[in-house]
Amino acid sequence: MAALRLTAEALAARRGDRTVFEDVSFSIGPGDVLAVTGPNGAGKSTLLRIVAGLLAPARGSIVLDPAPDAGRGVAVHYLGHLEALKPAFTIAENLAFWRRLYGGAGDLDEALEDVGLGGLAHLPVGRLSAGQKRRVAIARLLVIDRPIWLLDEPTTALDAAAEATLGRLIERHRTCGGLVLAAIHRPLPVDPTATIVLGKAAA
């Protein structure tokens, strides 16, 4: 995995006439895990979506060094609140769809074993529990295999065992030189390198 550094300078976000956050800066490199905390409405999800390139900041800049020829989007994988899974498709069909769409090369069966869903690839996603669906979404991180993981409340719907599994996968990713930016309400199952607290001025 190529060594990357992601740097944000003086980011600001607005929602209508309201400033959601401003002057947010950070720099993370290989192996770093940055946790983003704060109350509801502080802009945690907004910050991740800006880094993912899904929203434009009101001010500020984001630089990825070295910059991919095809843009920052090819280096990031955003895991949001919604699982983005088709309920009528099987687990394997969902993962294969996303792998084709994003050009991933990860092994589907290996990814499912890693998240504790080995042997269930044939099941339709619509038959899964909320926790199982979340684990399929986490498996998508593995089959697409991008260096920057943007995780929005990644432990949602996970039981203690699945949280521990997520922690092991994050540790493996950072050991391989990956970067993680996670918006959280609950503590991550790994120790973050640094933490940003949004919404402090409003508290």
UniProtKB/TrEMBL annotation:
Asked if the Swiss-Prot or TrEMBL record annotates the protein with the keyword Membrane, the reply is: yes
According to its UniProt entry, the protein's GO biological process terms are: cytochrome complex assembly
GO molecular function ontology, one term from the record:
ATP hydrolysis activity
Any keyword Nucleotidyltransferase? Answer: no
Superkingdom: Bacteria
**Which part of the chain is the ABC transporter domain?**
6-201
- Record keywords, A-Z: ATP-binding, Cytochrome c-type biogenesis, Membrane, Nucleotide-binding, Translocase, Transport
Membership in a protein family: Belongs to the ABC transporter superfamily.
PANTHER family, A to Z: ABC TRANSPORTER I FAMILY MEMBER 1 (PTHR43499:SF1)
Q: What is the name attached to this protein's record?
A: Heme exporter protein A
Q: Which organism is this entry from?
A: Bauldia litoralis
